[in-house]
Design goal:
Immunoglobulin-like; about 575 residues; 8-stranded mixed β-sheet; single chain; 5-stranded antiparallel β-sheet; about 5% helix; 5 domains
Length: about 575
């Protein structure tokens, strides 16, 4: 099995937990936009250059993606030999300009050439926007070798670059890119944007590349000696807190990042799955994943399998440490799962009993207040876990929805695809109001239908971000933070980026008290960290939002903190 197939096979275990991307955030669509007169069409022209050398970049593909919900079709073009591009006959509206070229980090238009910053472009009727300079950041590259204790190269070692990022107000290690060593033990990690990275190395035994049918045998004999290579963080530690961070600048080529994996005794986890007839046992997937809440589940776990007609299973090559044992199978569309914490010490763990529980189903309905219409909207209700994906379902034409495979966890709930101006007013399950308490199913999914009330009269906040010299700041990040008593509600937070004129708009704000901040640059999600906000609370501007209200604010940008 190729490394890519294995990676996918490992992730299939957690489906639909890992459902992400467009499935998770469907685009809202309305009726076709009104016809635009030829004289009202717009254009954008400019040049793409390297952010480090200033050299024009030919063969760069650019996409102009509409941000307004009434427009859905993107525009595309490619730069010529001088790096010049032109978008003609563009409808007025707000757009994101994205560029991609081999050897450079794909990114949205950065007004100051910073790969982590972007600004939308706003086109007024008939506007001809010229002299846009798109500074594209060269990719960073890290290369090196992985050898064993004797200095011999190790093939099939998975290398992953990880960086710290905020998830629900907590800093966690999140995977940014991965690759594998070749037969010479060499690896190359590319397409890295500037930042600090931690590198992890994990050896994947040959048996993991065998087909699932080949691994379904009476007694696995690979790794019979019970030895293997525990995962490491660069340069030589199993503790991510002790790992060295590698700083990658724009276009940096960092070589000779070498790691040594030492073969040591590894443990086995044995047990039995308790379920239906043996014909189903081939479809059971078992996996061990680290129980370290500092690390997002980016890498495939340690996979095991049922190997006999009595439902016995075995997971080999396990290094000592705390894990979750996850088990999963699907029967007639319903997922049965088990999750149990286990601690692996310096001896094999025997006689684990895995008892499957059917996942729950939650039905619900969206209620629209007032005269709000949802014509053309594609709503999706999502229960989200911070590290293990989500359970989501589309809202049907009759405004009903059904969430399947709901696990006993505490979730963030959100409704994606809301039209501009709509906000979530309340959430109930049966007679229980959970709008502000959150969705907590750790004691099971309660009986009753979920009712989500949405209102079309959300508040709107417009404004401009300026620096100390009263100059507009293009690309500034604006964050709307609820009052302290509501900061545990994830969907109350709103963000926007100032356009090329320093102007921003935030729609669909739930009535209440907020603080609004304008940042020259901010790490995504940090505004949900209470400790971070304590340092900057005084820099925010209080704003009170009423139903249907329209507030205008002038923000002074919070400059980048000097390190």
């Amino acid at each position: 099995m190729t490394r890519f197939k294995y990676f996918l096979a490992s992730l299939l275990f957690c489906l639909p937990l890992y459902a992400q991307g467009d499935q998770r955030k469907p685009r809202a669509q309305q009726a076709p936009p009104p016809f635009v007169q030829p004289e009202d069409k717009c254009s954008i022209e400019g040049t793409v250059v390297s952010a480090t050398s200033g050299e024009p970049l030919k063969k760069t593909y650019l996409t102009l993606q509409p941000l307004d919900q009434r427009n859905t079709v993107p525009y595309g073009t490619t730069t010529d030999n001088a790096g010049y591009f032109l978008f003609n006959d563009v409808d007025p509206g707000r757009y994101s300009l994205v560029a991609a070229r081999n050897g450079f980090v794909p990114q949205s238009w950065p007004p100051r050439g910073n790969a982590s910053q972007n600004a939308p472009l706003t086109l007024a009727m008939g506007q001809k926007l010229k002299q846009i300079v798109f500074k594209l950041t060269p990719q960073g590259v890290i290369t090196g070798h992985v050898v064993d204790q004797d200095g011999e190269p190790l093939a099939r070692v998975q290398l992953q670059v990880m960086t710290f990022a905020y998830q629900r107000g907590r800093r966690q290690l999140v995977g940014a890119n991965f690759t594998m060593t070749d037969d010479l033990g060499e690896f190359r990690l590319f397409n890295l944007k500037p930042g600090k990275y931690i590198i992890s190395a994990r050896y994947l035994p040959l048996e993991m590349f065998m087909g699932l049918q080949e691994r379904f045998v009476s007694a696995p004999g690979v790794q019979a000696a019970g030895e293997g290579y525990p995962p490491k963080f660069y340069p030589n530690t199993r503790n991510p807190d002790e790992a060295s961070q590698i700083e990658v600048s724009a276009g940096a080529q960092i070589h000779d990042i070498d790691m040594r994996l030492v073969r040591t005794r590894m443990m086995r986890v044995n047990g039995r799955v308790n379920m239906g007839p043996p014909s189903q046992w081939r479809d059971v997937t078992l996996m061990l994943v680290p129980r370290d809440t500092r690390i997002m589940m980016n890498m495939p776990g340690i996979v095991g399998h049922v190997f006999d007609a009595k439902g016995n299973f075995e997971i080999r090559g396990v290094a000592p440490g705390p894990y979750y044992l996850l088990a999963n199978y699907v029967e007639e569309g319903q997922r049965f799962s088990a999750r149990m914490p286990i601690d692996v010490g310096n001896s094999n763990l025997e006689d684990i009993e895995v008892n499957f529980q059917p996942s729950a189903e939650l039905k619900g309905r969206v209620v629209v207040e007032g005269n709000g219409g949802l014509r053309g909207a594609r709503l999706n209700v999502s229960l989200q876990l911070p590290t293990m994906g989500n359970s989501s379902g589309p809202v049907k034409d009759d405004l009903s929805f059904k969430l399947t495979n709901v696990s006993p966890d505490a979730f963030d709930l959100n409704v994606f695809g809301l039209l501009a101006g709509f906000y979530i007013k309340s959430i109930r399950i049966g007679d229980q109001d959970i709008t502000e308490t959150g969705v907590d199913f750790t004691r099971g999914v309660p009986a009753g239908e979920m009712t989500i009330v949405i209102n079309p009269n959300g508040g709107q906040i417009d404004g401009t971000v300026q620096n100390a010299k009263s100059e507009n700041v293009a690309g500034a990040t604006v964050t709307l933070v609820p009052d302290e008593s509501h900061r545990s509600i994830d969907w109350l937070y709103k963000t926007a980026n100032a356009d090329q004129n320093g102007h921003f708009t935030i729609w669909g704000v739930r009535p209440g008290e907020y603080k609004i901040f304008g940042w020259e640059e901010i790490e995504p999600g940090s505004y949900q960290d209470p400790d971070f906000m304590k340092l900057h609370e005084s820099a925010g501007k209080a704003v009170s939002v009423k139903e249907g209200g329209h507030e205008t604010v002038q923000l002074t940008v919070i400059p980048i903190e000097k390190k």
